Amino acid sequence: MRLRYADGTVRVEGPMETVEGSTETVADVGVSFDVDGGRFDALHYRTFRDSLRAANVEFDDDVLDPVAGPELSCSLSLRPYQSAALRRWRSDERGVVVLPTGAGKTYVGMAAVDAVGGPTLVVVPTLELVDQWRDELARFGVPVGEFTGRAKALEPITVTTYDSAHTHAGRLGNRFEFVLFDEVHHLAAEKYQEIAERMAAPARMGLTATYERDDERHTRLTRLLGGKVYEIQTDDLTGEYLSTYTVERITVELSPDERETYDEHAAVFRNYVAFSSVSLDGPDGYRKLVIRSGNDPRAWRAIRAKETSRKIAFNAESKLDELASLLRECRENGDRVVVFTRYNDLVHVVADRFLIPSITYKTPTDERRAILSGFKSGRYDAVVSSQVLDEGVDVPDANVGIILSGTGSEREYRQRLGRILRPSEKSARLYELVSADTGEVRTADRRRA
Questions:
Q1: Are 123 and 145 within 8 A, CB to CB?
Q2: Where are the alpha helices (DSSP H) in 19-67?
Q3: Torsions phi, psi for 411 (to 5 deg)
Q4: What residues are paired with 358 via a beta bridge?
Q5: Has domain 245-253+316-447 been given CATH number 3.40.50.300?
Q6: Distance of alpha carbon 227 from its chain centroid, rounded?
């Protein structure tokens, strides 16, 4: 019998015969997944291979065709919790490691590359992270490849994005012995889970600071990678490895005009929900309402009213007055500040009013790097951003975060807190500015629940 890799699947060719000459079936070797027409997802390659070995079946294994190169080795000094995470993962060489932002997930991943010692594919969500990982992986002393829209170079260690890995999973799926997914919560998305399904790599690891997803799809990671094998909380590391911190909510009032407009639009949404059969229960409730708005004009008006009232609460003028006071205080204390918003229009308002640099998804890579470099050097003492600094971008030396607006996502909240927790002589401070008597109060409660 022979095993071959074919475009994200493993093909089983020939009869299953044991060393003793008896004929076996798939059921006999104890696999629980479907082998349809002698083919199965490459995800199950290791399980099937090990089952054949245990059943004493003779076979030729032509599945993996690893990128040629030297054995990978890099000497790293790990913190105790990083070593514990690595030990847990190495027990099966599968699973997800959950560490707070700033706690050194990258080093755990690199130590895993060192432990496996073979060709490795690192999958990340953004080109910014491609560059950051390539810089860190240079410690191995071998060429680090990149397989993205801007380069197609396979090396013993190669970094790619989720988008490129999904597009080329059939081509990449048998070229590596180890696949490492950074910000692994992305892998649970409907499209991206196909990457893990089409990869034959026997060793696989996920890294994240925020394992759980609001849509519960993180449960898919158990099948794709092996589930959570290690987790440590932010508060377990503060003081020694992360900065101590405080969180303060500041409630502001809408102006009379803002209040009138807010109440008017909020009532439109409430009335529609009250007098229709729509339910907003569960993580998909609002999404279903959005879908319904495609052929229901009243639902469309309700959605528009909801969005208008939300923006009024998020962009309240009194928030900018409070921000001015906080920025003055921070500058007097020599603090380094990151201001977070949900929408880009408020980013530009803050940048123009307070003369601080801004970063959005439209900011060119070179400009973004220049801003963060200026922030690190002290040229800038504050920066304002929408959601692009929430994840995967190294924000140097910030010790104060100010949330002007955001979603109810716990993941977003943890990521924003993590931006300011890198070890510092100063205690970190996170401020949440919330408009009183609006839906934003519930949003803030939900993300901190």
A1: no
A2: 45-54
A3: -60, -45
A4: 384
A5: yes
A6: 15
pTM score: 0.87
Domain at 80-237: CATH code? 3.40.50.300
User: Side chain identity at 62, as an amino acid letter?
Assistant: D
Q: Is the pLDDT of residue 395 over 80?
A: no
Question: Reduced to 3 states, what is the DSSP secondary structure of residue 112?
Answer: helix
Long-range contacts of 361-369 (CB under 8 A, 24+ apart): 361/386, 361/387, 361/388, 363/388, 365/127, 365/128, 368/128, 368/393
Asked if 196 and 43 count as a contact pair (C-beta separation under 8 A), the reply is yes
329-346 mean pLDDT: 92
Residues of CATH 3.40.50.300 domain(s) within the chain?
80-237, 245-253+316-447
297, 268 Cβ separation under 8 angstroms: no
Give the dihedral sign, CA 74/77/81/87.
Answer: positive
Identity of residue 443: T
Determine the average pLDDT of the residues in 331-356: 93
CB atoms within 10 A of CB 350: 23
The Cα 301–Cα 317 span in angstroms is: 25
